[in-house]
């Protein structure tokens, strides 16, 4: 079926992608492969025709038809998706690939998806060596893969060289170092020259080679090779090595239609065998007949000079004369056709000596003419590169621009008013380090991977841009160029920088949030622990009346009273009944904070303000802004901090440590203490002005012994609470025990009562709560511990000694337990950290109390 113009246009468009070094396949919506380039076919192990018969699921085992259709629907347009997966080749082997997928911009009735990929594994050895070569005991095969930098040697070659029979692959550098001592100097130079010519011309080559084996004995061999190239460059050399006697035992049959002449008829280049002394043609292949229009008989009856234009004859004869001493020559000339026309060719001349010493010139003529179809093909290639958003710039060996795509021209033309072609790239991008073509080429040949370079420049608009620059050698005909690929990664770099800054900010906020969360947890625990205020006492009703009076104002409140009376519960009630009740109440225990950290806790700090300040932190004043700040144990605050607290209360402003910024705060302050602040003022341990600022509305919290009528109410409440918590059923309380409890003085106040009830619930055997055992334990404690309470005639002891005795008694009662339910901190109604700090200060060890 003839191809339609649309099919022809599509095929030419797809052929343009053969310029790329990556594999490319086109997939339709049903997952059918509609085409591919040569690189894709080679990586997958198929020929192009077979590849076009497959579906995408046959090369990508990770996709099904349903998965492909879903992927097709989600593929951005315009845009591309990153590809990083595994493909399976014709041999059924998985190999890793990386690339991208997008819709092809080519206008076709049936839309296609473009998959561009490259293998991320070491290059596989392709099956270019004939099976006959591998089986022939007198012929050894070899291969050099320039892409991977690996040299392969067949078993015969390794045996002749005396190398390890177990190893068949060598890195190029190691191979060269290993083979050099075994090759004669003259043949080594010739081999190096042959190697360079094969990279430039991609033509078959052959030469004599003298090699020394492991014993140092030299033998003559005949080396033959071929080049494999894509549209850009030669990427592999392969061939055979045979002993000289084997080579001579099978001379090329001149003038006979043998195997060699038959195989040459399949060559795409014209091949002539010329008798060197007479310059007459003794053999011409089928392509030579097609190129000139003469039959084989006509060609083999005339002199080679008859096929060459007169102007090129001197150069041809000179090359033929030089062959005996220089066995490889190259010429550019035109051959004469039978119809009178000419065909421009690239002629490569090789010397061949037969067994009887006869010298032949083997002439390989490659047609280098360009027709209209080639021009269209090049236009498609150029148009394809112009579709790329990346810059593509080709430099010659001197670093001057010879070609650039539309994206590069559009950007670089803004940097100069001169014509870009012929300029040095470094004139336009002054600080860009452009390596030499030879250096990049050598790195590629030796498989040294070079990372992309980041180049920063300022565009004409004053914006700083970042380019990711990559250098690659490319081949076009017999010339080499340095291809510079530039991708604008400004947005990516900016996003990365913003992401880094955002992460830094998130880390700071996380640290701040964790700090605030700890405070909030403590507040929630305090609110839940306090519970409702239960009382039937008329005296305590007066205290509640005071709360009702002051709650609706913003006046500062000072709550005094013994330890364990529930001062924080009163502060919470004042906050709850105020207009600030919907906001936070932040609590600070002034005795629990080390002196060097109390300022930071109250006012906050900036990052780096002191050692350990890894992030900015808000203080309690800022956290309580709009709400209430409860300062418990205010009498424990150091004098220098009292002055700073007074300033904050008077002016409503604070400053974080390490900052000059003044922050306004709207905070209602409630303070509490069990100390005699007036006595502390006389002793010089508390500021008088701060006392008056705090004591605007004083409330004295009653001890439990002054509100005994509340004891039965509280016992019933806490019994229900702990019974429910422990899964017990308590329906009765022994009245005699309850009466004895009412008569008890409770030096630990409500906290001591709670501790007693909890212990009784734990030890209860039935539905009746027996408080007798707990009460008797309390009385034994009172009798055994002297000096905890004082009568009116007792001499007063220092306050710290009084604290020490209380702490010792609490630890003894709790058997050394400090924190948690039933601990000394709970009994004394103080923060656990505060109690441990006091114990360290007073030299009290928990180990002395049976814990």
TrEMBL record:
Keywords of the record: ATP-binding, Coiled coil, DNA-binding, Nucleotide-binding, Transcription, Transcription regulation
Xref: SUPFAM superfamilies: Homeodomain-like (SSF46689), P-loop containing nucleoside triphosphate hydrolases (SSF52540), PYP-like sensor domain (PAS domain) (SSF55785)
One Pfam family this sequence matches: PAS
Domain Sigma-54 factor interaction: 533-762
CDD domains for the chain: AAA, PAS
Source organism, top-level taxon: Bacteria
Gene Ontology MF terms in the entry: ATP binding; sequence-specific DNA binding
Coiled coil: 492-530
Gene3D superfamilies: 1.10.8.60, Homeodomain-like, P-loop containing nucleotide triphosphate hydrolases, PAS domain
Entry keyword Ribosomal protein: no
PROSITE patterns, sorted: SIGMA54_INTERACT_1 (PS00675), SIGMA54_INTERACT_2 (PS00676), SIGMA54_INTERACT_3 (PS00688), SIGMA54_INTERACT_4 (PS50045)
Single biological process term from Gene Ontology: regulation of DNA-templated transcription
NCBIfam families noted in UniProt: sensory_box (TIGR00229)
Official protein name in the record: Sigma 54-interacting transcriptional regulator
Annotated organism of origin: Neolewinella lacunae
Lineage: Bacteria, Pseudomonadati, Bacteroidota, Saprospiria, Saprospirales
